Structure formats: C-alpha cells, structure tokens
Here is the input.
Amino acid sequence: MPEMMINDGEKMPMSRILLTKQYLETQTDEAHPATIADILAHMESVGIPASRKAIQSDLEQLTETGYDIVRNTGRQHEYFVGDRHFELPELKLLVDAVQAAKFVSARKSASLTQKLTVLTSVHLAGELNRQTYIESRIKPDNEKVYLAVDVLHSAIQDRHKVQFKYYEYDRYKRKQYKHDRQLYTLSPYGMLWNHDSYYVVGHSDSHGKVITFRVDRIATPEATDLPAEPPPSDFDISVYARAVFSMYDGPMQTVTLKCKNEIMKTIIDRFGEGVETDLPDNDHFTATVTVSTSLTFYGWVFSFGGKMTILAPEQAVREYTDLLRAQIPR
Here is the structure.
C-alpha cells in the first residue's frame, strides 16, 4: 500500500484522493484518458478500498479546488489532466536546453532530464528522453557547476560579493589556478549564457572594472558578507553582452563597419534592430556599433571573407590591418 510521511516520521497510508490525483497526473493525458473503472483497478492493485461513488466524489473535490480535470462524455466518462504547470512543448524546450548546455555535465544533464519527465504523463515522458546531441557534444567533467550557479545567483540577489579561485589549462591539459591561486573578489551583477557556456558578469576588485568569468572554471565560490560594489549608472548587461564578443576582454570602442547588403541579418542578430546604420551606396550599408576590439572581434570580421571591413576608428583599422599582414608568409 502506498505510504507517506507525517511530521514525527511515522508512515501512514496515502489518502485515496491524493492517490487519485497522482494517478491522473502520471497516467493520463488528452490521448490517454482514464475511466473510473481504470482508477478503481489501480486502487485495487495498491490495496486501497474504493467504490465508483467514492472515486466520483474525489474527482469532484479535486475539480472544486481548482485542479483541471477534463471529462470526456460518451458511452463511459473518461478523465484526464488538462492544464499542467508545463505543457509538453515547454518541457521539450527545457530538455533540449539542459542537454545542449555545454556547462552542464553529461551525468547532470541525464539527471535533470529524468526529473523533467515526471512533469508529464508516462505516455509522453518517452518524448523527452530524446538525448538531443548529449552523447556527441563536449561536456565538462565539473559536476559542481550548478552549485556555483546557485551561489552566484544568491549573491546577485543579496547584493554581496563572492570570492573564488579561477583556473585555466596548461599545455598538458592540466588545470592550473591563475596567478598563483589568487583569490578573486567579485561583485556579481548578472549571468550570461553565450555559445552554450555560462558566465558571470561583475566588478572585479583586482581588475578594477567590470569583467566576465566562465562559471565552469570557477573553483569553490563562496558568498561573503561584504556589500557588492554598485554597477555603473549606465551599465546594461544586454548591451554589455552584445559588445563583448564571445566573452573576450578587450578595450571598448565605437566602430564603424562597412558591410555587403546580404549580411544585414547577421548585424541585426548580433546588435539588434536598433543598430545605427547608413546607406553609402546601393551595394553596402554601414553599421556603427560599440564592441570589445579583441582578437575575437577581428576574427569575426575576417570570417566574412571581405564582405565586412572596418572604416573607423583609425586605431581599430590599424590593429586589424597589422593582424592581416602578420598572417602573410615571408
């Protein structure tokens, strides 16, 4: 017989109405309704005495308390759960995000996916076990990333600083703490998910400015009682995210790009529909954007194979030209 715990730890049989609710949640959906006879059979299988009248009363009480039970009328009444907290398309979206996220380990992805399947019926749960590229994607070994995310989110909410060590890899693929195991102190402002990696953005005491850290490379983060440094008055994390390409830190500059008309969609995808543009001729447009002029930005420009060039400022033009010349064999 199903059991549930009461306050002092003693076990007691699960009530019939709770068991009816559980059965409807796990065994029914629009394509798989259940009759009262089905529910009675389930009660009998777990040793709960019931009658048709009792089950009918349970269904009415659940409906009166706001539980969405849909009744199909026909030769025999059939019942199923209507509105759920998450519809199947929403669960599929969450599962895909969990399995595709590079910062979540394969083991944790499988665990989270399994937990999401209990939010729908057993008949539809199989559609969530799709393993969306999980076996072929690069996944981290760090099982504690989700704990770090929780610490960081709590610090953001409480407006407190966090401290942690940060590591990279040496030529032998060994983890090496940066700057001789330096303890970083950060006032976190927000979290960013970019290219399947998770980042925290905030003011670093040692850097003296707003920077980003990859969450899966943060070791043993701890919240402190120190109040966080307030963000700059003009700080906008969405603007910051668009400006800092792939989270590489370089000087922020306002850059004018000359682009072929065919890549306007790429500019809008990157900078939004509000990007400042002009039309110098029939084949090109210019875009004025604020970006981090790092190697990543220059590599992004180069990836368009001449369909994008840098017009201004002169410093960015010179840096980009020097990088191109350095690639020419001598």
